[in-house]
Amino acid sequence: RQGSELSGWAMGRWTYEGIDLNHNFADLNTALWDAEDNDLVPHEFPNHYIPIPEYYTFANATVAPETRAVIDWMQRYPFVLSANLHGGELVVTYPFDMTRTYWKAQELTPTADDGVFRWLATVYATSNLAMASEERRLCHYDDFTRFGNIINGANWHTVPGS
User: Fold this and answer.
1) Alpha carbon 116 to its chain's center
2) What are phi and psi of 131, to 5 degrees?
3) Contact in structure between 157 and 21 (CB atoms under 8 Å)
4) Percentage helix, strand, coil, to 5, in the chain?
5) How far apart are the C-alpha atoms of 73 and 75, rounded to whole Å?
6) Residue pair 127/78 in contact by the 8 Å Cβ criterion
7) How many CB atoms lie within 10 A of CB 122?
8) pLDDT at 88 (0 to 100)
9) Virtual CA dihedral for 92, 149, 153, 70, nearest 10 degrees?
């Protein structure tokens, strides 16, 4: 029943080079939001596929080999829905994980498909026995049971490039 801060939540998160894999992906959200603000979506800037920025592919960019491998894999096998699993927290987050207001640490930042993502998150959270248990532990000091064990990622903490 230890919280994530006591059970090694950061193990495996940092590379040998000191890169935090949880925060090493390119920020694609800002490009989308700028295009939305300029009425470019969807005709001039399709919102279903946002390419990796060119600067992120340069050899001298601070990109972990593991992140490059995931990018290569994503480009070989395009997909429209994904999930990621992290050890530590018993909460399901759904997009977006980055706040739209760049200086805010937390902000409700829903996608156009917010209802679908909330439904998928709820189905998982209510089907996962550890999450649904009355005996579950808190996440640090956050009690996500009041939200059904789900939360908009950016409303919990912002993660650019997630």
Assistant:
1) 16
2) -75, -35
3) no
4) 35, 5, 60
5) 5
6) no
7) 16
8) 66
9) -10
Where are the alpha helices (H) located in the chain, listed in sequence order?
Answer: 29-37, 65-76, 114-127, 129-132, 153-156
- AA identity, residue 104: K
Name residue, tokens 């998982």: 124
Cα within 13 Å of Cα(141), Cβ side: 0
Question: Structure tokens of 67?
Answer: 């992140």
Q: What per-residue confidence (pLDDT) applies to 116? A: 96
Question: pLDDT tens digits, residue range 48-106?
Answer: 888 888 988 898 999 999 999 998 998 899 887 877 766 667 889 999 999 999 899 99
Residue 78 tokens read as: 């395009």
pTM of the predicted model as reported, rounded to 2 decimal places: 0.81
pLDDT digits (tens, 9 = 90+) for 120-146: 999 999 998 888 887 776 666 777 888
DSSP 14: B
